[in-house]
């Protein structure tokens, strides 16, 4: 454990239910980890997508009352930010070597060791899902299960590589300019919430746009470079034995990647949930669509949601909005079926 100078209280910690920021020194630099909940409970590690942090990537899910009931009742949450992506981050020194994806995965191990954690549950979005999958492949004994949202597993296609190069050039020459933010918002959200000439963009998109203003371009570019040089993980996916639950919006630019990744997992240990009219960031755009599949996923681990919120109109205890396949005996936490569940906007 590091000394007391490594732990820095958040100014807005009341918003995060008593959360506290820790600066964890690793071989590849300092990492911000926001912890909230009872540290005697099992650990849930989160990792966000490019240019995001826990505030812009997971707030919708964790501020959903049913999610608070399910997740905070069972876990202590450890929000890990990519280097330089945390709230109030300063620009990383230019003389510091940019990390590789292996470096970022190894930082997760150092975070677990810093807090004295054993095996953990992991939740990541897109680039963050790739980092956590790589971590699970390198350190299998440290991962109980994976919840992956619009994940990546292959090396970048030529199209993605080109888009990433365009973003790198925009970051280098113009910083977090308006065009770059539009490209990122298209990466995160469906057109339904990004707005049209007739309808304004939604509150979640406006909030994300404001939070992107706080990112330093050089820090974002370092993470982008690591992701753009990532190796293909396909060959190792079938050897993973931790259970994996994959969510993807059917409007996500990474939809086909999520389908491909699902096909490469061992079918005994994986399941896919497709969310209609949703982009990549299901955690923000339609967090309620994640609740029921997560509840049944956690049952395998003996984790349950307390029933005091069971009268909620979106309660995971209501069977009306879940595919019958998920209600089969094999999927009630005993065996997780490799299904595709479409969740409508009315959920």
Automatic annotation (TrEMBL):
Protein keywords: Membrane, Transmembrane, Transmembrane helix
InterPro entries: AB_hydrolase_fold, NDRG
Pfam families registered for this protein in UniProt: Ndr
Regions crossing the membrane: 114-136
Highest taxon in the source lineage: Eukaryota
PANTHER family: N-MYC DOWNSTREAM REGULATED (PTHR11034)
UniProt family annotation: Belongs to the NDRG family.
Name of this protein: N-MYC downregulated-like 1
């Amino acid at each position: 454990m590091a000394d007391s100078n490594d732990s820095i209280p958040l100014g807005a910690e009341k918003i995060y239910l008593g959360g506290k920021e820790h600066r964890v020194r690793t071989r590849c630099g300092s990492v911000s980890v926001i912890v909230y909940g009872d540290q005697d409970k099992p650990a849930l590690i989160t990792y966000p997508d490019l240019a995001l942090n826990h505030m812009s990537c997971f707030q919708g899910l964790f501020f959903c009352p049913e999610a608070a009931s399910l997740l905070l009742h069972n876990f202590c949450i450890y929000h890990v930010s990519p280097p330089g992506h945390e709230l109030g981050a300063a620009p990383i020194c230019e003389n510091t070597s940019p990390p590789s994806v292996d470096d970022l995965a190894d930082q997760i191990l150092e975070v677990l060791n810093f807090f004295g954690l054993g095996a953990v549950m992991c939740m990541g979005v897109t680039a963050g899902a790739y980092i956590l999958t790589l971590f699970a492949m390198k350190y299998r004994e440290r991962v109980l299960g994976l919840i992956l949202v619009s994940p990546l597993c292959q090396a970048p296609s030529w199209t993605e590589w080109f888009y990433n190069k365009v973003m790198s050039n925009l970051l280098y020459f113009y910083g977090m300019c308006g065009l770059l933010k539009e490209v990122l918002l298209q990466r995160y959200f469906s057109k339904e919430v990004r707005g049209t000439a007739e309808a304004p963009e939604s509150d979640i998109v406006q909030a994300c746009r404001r939070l992107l203003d706080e990112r330093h371009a050089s820090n974002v570019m370092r993470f982008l470079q690591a992701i753009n040089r990532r190796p293909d993980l396909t060959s190792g996916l079938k050897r993973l034995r931790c259970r994996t639950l994959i969510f993807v919006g059917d409007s996500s630019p990474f939809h086909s990647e999520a389908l491909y990744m699902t096909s490469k997992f061992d079918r005994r240990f994986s399941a896919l949930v497709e969310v209609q009219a949703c982009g990549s960031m299901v955690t923000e755009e339609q967090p309620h669509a994640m609740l029921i599949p997560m509840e049944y996923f956690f049952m395998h681990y003996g984790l349950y949601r307390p029933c005091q919120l069971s009268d909620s109109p979106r309660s995971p205890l209501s069977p009306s909005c879940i595919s019958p396949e998920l209600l089969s005996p094999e999927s009630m936490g005993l065996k997780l079926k490799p299904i595709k569940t479409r969740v409508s906007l009315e959920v």
